[in-house]
Design a protein that fits this description.
The structure is a homodimer of 113-residue chains.
Chain A: H1 14-21, H2 24-35, H3 42-45, H4 53-65, E1 69-74, E2 77-82, H5 84-90, H6 94-103
Antiparallel strand pairs in A: 1-2
Helix pairs in contact in A: 1-4
The structure holds a DNA duplex (30 and 30 nucleotides).
DNA sequence: TCAATTGTTCGGAAATATGGAACTATTGAA
DNA sequence: TTCAATAGTTCCATATTTCCGAACAATTGA
């Protein structure tokens, strides 16, 4: 049984959050998680079906270690949720500011509308 | 004479801004520029004297290409200013949100007080 | 003209990202 | 119980990026 490392709220760093969200795929994953009632498996949260499983797994690990998401095992799947309250407590306004900006960034969506 | 590439405001991307600011040294540079009346040479803006010149030059290039700073040549030195208005126009609230968070991030300052 | 200063460019070493293949863990069916 | 299917992880090789030192270019002042 693999158990996951989640940093405590106080151990979340700005550099970690920014570099995690600097990747368009990871930003898209976070956006997707927040939209879809906050809980998705890894493959369901993937913004692009052509990404290799190993790459996707790595993206989720980065998001986990940055403190952006929490992952728990539920059967075969993993349930991922955004640690919105923790991020807000650590860096008030940051996550929402970034997500709001992502709406006006044409380069951000992996699959543009 | 080396001339610099500065992206137009509309070409500034969220991923570029976030990945540029995800590096603590670059974030510190931007903070320093904003504090010191907004204009500094590259070495003067360096948060840490042990960083190699070539590395510093690279950091400034990244900031420039992300659209975060503008560089103009003034004699031997380069004058760097933060494109605060452009960033604000492109991504309202983003830069200030990140800078505000950097105050409460102990890991952010290169030379902690 | 020459030395000093500022920053860029180049080359190699170290770190990181990506994808394919093999592996583990869990579920459901026979 | 045994077997196949599914979801992620880990390992490995390749490719890209980062960092530094050294050499270089441009400007200034003596």
């Amino acid at each position: 049984m693999v158990q996951f490392v989640h940093p405590a709220t106080k151990d979340i760093t700005l550099a970690g959050v920014l570099s995690a969200l600097a990747d368009p795929i990871r930003l898209q994953i976070v956006r997707g998680l927040l939209q879809e009632s906050g809980c998705l498996s890894c493959t369901a949260a993937s913004p692009c079906p052509t990404i290799a499983k190993s790459t996707l797994s790595n993206h989720f690990r980065v998001l986990r270690e940055a403190g952006l998401i929490q992952t728990s095992k539920k059967g075969v799947e993993h349930q991922n949720t955004v640690r919105a309250a923790d991020i807000e407590a650590r860096f008030p306004g940051l996550l929402m500011a970034i997500l709001a900006c992502s709406l006006s960034d044409d380069a951000s969506p992996v699959a543009p509308a």
